[in-house]
Q: What sequence folds into this?
């Protein structure tokens, strides 16, 4: 049973993909599955590392670790030497180049397969925007096309900087159902730009257990221990995966199809978010 709370501090939201694995596989298939889960594990570790870096910023925080990992993996395809080593360490990439990108491709295929079931909408698109006349190795473009489906677009950053910025933004806007309308702000690219890599992801899904709009009521939302505002809060009585911990509680809200879900963590103390965030690591979440 879930009811709206009078005291809510905030929530950290994570999207988990639930994937099944068959029982009978060839040795080659086993290696591919191992690479796939190695990438998922590394992406999760990077996501929590990044959250720890961003949590101190003012205001609400919303980002897509999958999009960031994918865009940087596309960039990583062209890295070698010390740059490759440092990127691998930060991004938790432990596989060699070819199996890494193959595993990223499998991850995107799994997400596409979930969408094909028709319960939720997941749109993922990648693209490369390069300065016309600038030389890149064909192997770099070919790898991004093969594993990420990244289309190659030749543009003129030098003399048509603003027009190119708008062109890229229109592409992102179209791929995200017009939810992201100006990804690249004025000044983010200039005449010295030679390559822009884009990852756009759009998700829309209905709850497996729907909320009744008639039960939505205004309630207190605490911005801090001494300040609160009234906000609309949904409520329903139903069965969900729920666990109560010493300092916080967690609940999983599945989307239609039961392949994807939202996990919400709620600190018990009004001013308990900072303490909770310090313990929000990849290892701790797996233990929870």
A:
């Amino acid at each position: 049973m879930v009811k709206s709370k009078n005291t809510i501090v905030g929530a950290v939201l994570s999207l988990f993909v639930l994937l099944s694995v068959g029982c009978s596989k060839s040795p080659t298939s086993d290696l591919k599955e191992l690479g796939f889960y190695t990438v998922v594990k590394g992406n999760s570790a990077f996501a929590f590392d990044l959250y720890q870096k961003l949590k101190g910023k003012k205001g609400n925080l919303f980002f897509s670790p999958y999009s960031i990992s994918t865009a940087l993996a596309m960039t990583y395809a062209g890295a070698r030497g010390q740059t490759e080593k440092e990127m691998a360490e930060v991004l938790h990439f432990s596989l060699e180049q070819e199996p890494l990108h193959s595993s990223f491709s499998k991850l995107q295929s799994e997400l596409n397969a979930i969408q094909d079931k028709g319960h939720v909408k997941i749109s993922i698109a990648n693209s490369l925007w390069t300065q016309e006349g600038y030389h890149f190795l064909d192997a770099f473009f070919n790898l991004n096309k093969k594993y990420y489906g990244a289309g190659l677009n030749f543009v003129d950053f030098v003399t048509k900087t603003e027009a190119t910025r708008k062109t890229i933004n229109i592409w992102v806007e179209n791929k995200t159902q017009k939810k992201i309308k100006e990804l690249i702000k004025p000044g983010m690219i200039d005449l010295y730009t030679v390559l822009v890599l884009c990852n756009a992801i759009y998700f829309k899904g209905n709850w497996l257990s729907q909320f009744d709009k008639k039960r939505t009521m205004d309630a207190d939302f605490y911005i801090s221990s001494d300040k609160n505002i009234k906000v609309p809060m949904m409520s329903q009585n139903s069965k969900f995966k729920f666990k109560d911990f010493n300092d916080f509680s967690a609940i999983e809200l599945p989307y239609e199809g039961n392949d994807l879900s939202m996990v919400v963590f709620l600190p018990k103390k009004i001013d308990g978010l900072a303490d909770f965030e310090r313990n929000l690591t990849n290892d701790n979440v797996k233990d929870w």
Q: What stands out?
A: The chain has a mean pLDDT of 88. The longest strand covers residues 120-131. The radius of gyration is 21 Å. Residues 27-54 form the longest helix (28 residues).
